[in-house]
Amino acid sequence: MAKAKKEYLPMAVGFWGIGVPLLASVFLYCRTTAQKIAVFLCALVFLLIGTLIYRAKQ
Amino acid sequence: MNLAAVDWIFLIWYFILSIGIGVYYSGKAGKSISEYFVSGRSLPWWLLGTSMVATTFSSDTPLAVAGIVIKDGISGNWFWWTFMFGGSLTVFFFAHLWRRAAVLTEVEFIDIRYSGASARFLRGFKALYLGIPASCIIFGWVTLAMVKIIQIVFRTSGLQALGICILITIFYTALSGLWGVVATDMLLFAIAMLGAIVLSVASVEKVGGIKALLAAIQSISQQTGKNYLSVFPSLGQALPLAFFVALFVQWWAVYYPGAEPGGGGWVAQRMLAARNPKHAVSGTLWFNIAHYVIRPWPWIITALCAMVVFPELSAENAANVEAAYPRMLAILPKGIMGLMIASLFAAYMSTIESVLNLAGSYLLNDFYKPFLNKVATEKHYVLVSRLLVVFVAILGTGFSFILGSVKMGWALIMELSGGIGLVLLLRWYWWRINAWSEISAITASGLMAVYLKIFPDSILITSLSKKLQNLGFNVDPWAVNILLIVAFTTIVWIVVTFLTPPDSREKLLSFYKKVKPGGFWAPIAALNGKSYKLKVHPFLGWICGVLVILFFLLGIGEILFLRWAAGLLYLAGGTVSAIVLSKIIHKIDWEVQ
To answer: Which of B58, B224, B442, B578 is the most exposed place for a label (fewest CB within 10 A)?
Structure first.
């Protein structure tokens, strides 16, 4: 299983690698509430997909 | 528009992630051409389906869809939405057959289905046609779209930025094969969608909210006499011929990249790379849902907002209308701008990486290997594949300088291949189709398309246009061309099929045993001693697949425009259809049926 997970790991890291800066940009750069909500939800989706890929069955 | 430091950091980070993922898989891809071109046939449905939709989502797509909305309103999208009928057909009638065929490329199918010298000619011809000119047209039009975006965003000729983007993509595509392509596609599609959603939210804010947007568009509609918000075309005094051609002819007749009748191109490549037939079916279904339901609304909303922000747009020419989408980027705040530009790069890269890998597969597996160098090591073939990928990339870049507009690329591909779709569908289900059927269809289609381009005022076009006008149609030259090409091509290939002998019984029997297609195979089934029948479930699945896509597509639109009752009704219809669809998929034995 550990070996199997490794196969998808770069994809999962890619999603986390986008999700984390997105989360930061909610607080740093989004000006309005609508932007904050949209970017925050997108960040959550990225983090969630990354986790799902990491845990995906081979 | 000026990018802040944080935007540049995000862009650079995005490129590092893309290259990193691509390079990671290079070792795996270098083992054999099966690993390089079909990922060792080990892809799960979610990965192959997402890769299909990522490839079909290119940098040109939001530009073209925005252009369609600004020019013809939301209903103009039926130009491509009608392909959902063909998409759902592919899911239930062809995806599992492709996987069972277990060839390396769509073109290699010719080798297992047809016999004789005509089959060899067809394989070589298609390998070169799909590998070089067809791939270069696609490469050219998506690159053209990217150049437009870069010119608007960076206010330069954009060649340096584009050059870097192309070099990075070629580098990891050549290195990592289909594994690298699908793995990066997964991330690139998500980033591309993220950018589209964020831009649509910011655009709606810019015009004062959805209610203000709707009021402004209704006012524009009153001024121009066009209903931009209607999802269905107006069936008033004159019937729109283009809509009817798209609805009743285009989706089964025209070989369009990403929507090939019966599957082809990168769609077939991913079905061939699936773990098993059921994964091929589920992945292709996911592709169709994501393609038609998830993608379009953010672009449509942004296009409508662009009409309000830039009121002069509706009177402008096609090329300027297509630029409306990237012009909207100016409203984004810093920090988010970098993300948005990365999303457009992502859309671009996800398409060209697939086009390059696919072109390499045709040229290597269906031309170099069978015709030029039959016996060589896997390492040698992988090396040649990588060189071919680079070769096509250089040619495709050159082609982008020739194309006039993004939509011109779409239309060109459609007209050149109009009418060949029916042969591609029937070759699975009718034993009598032979290599000459395909050769004659391709030739007739290409000749007719060229004839109609050279003689746009020919008697054929004028007389048919007049007749259609008398029947009450609002005639569109593109639709008339497609009708003529399809009619001529169909007559030619049917006549040629019956004038030429069928393929050898051995070849047909071997295909029948391997693929188990069902349909019209009586003489071969008799030889086999066992026949495979088409049952009712795939037909039900096809209808349910279309309903799921249609209901959710319309439901989301209605909800976005605050028409809650209609929206919820559509979504309820979509949910019921999805439940029935799921039961049908589980009921079918995809290994046999």
So the answer is: B224
* pTM of the entire predicted model: 0.92
What was the pLDDT predicted at B406?
54
| Total number of domains constituting chain A | 1
The parent domain of residue A31 ranges over: 2-55
What is the location of CATH 1.20.1730.10 in chain B?
A: 5-411
Query: In the predicted model, is pLDDT for residue B2 greater than 50?
Result: yes
Question: What residues contact B94, with CB distance under 8 A and at least 6 apart?
Answer: B262, B263, B425, B428
| pLDDT score, position A30 | 82
CATH of B5-411, one of 1.20.1730.10, 3.40.50.150, 3.40.640.10, 3.30.420.40: 1.20.1730.10
* Residue ranges of E strands in B262-331: none
B560 touches chain A (CB under 8 A): no
Give per-residue pLDDT as tens, B542-574: 999 999 999 999 999 999 999 999 999 999 999
Quote the strand ranges of B228-284, DSSP E: 239-240
Between chains, do B17 and A11 touch, taking CB under 8 Å as contact?
no
Which positions 1-58 of A are in contact with B (Cβ < 8 Å)?
Answer: 10-11, 13-15, 17-18, 21-22, 25, 28-32, 34-35, 38-39, 42, 45-46, 49, 53, 56-57
Structural contact between residues B108 and B123, judged by C-beta atoms closer than 8 angstroms: yes
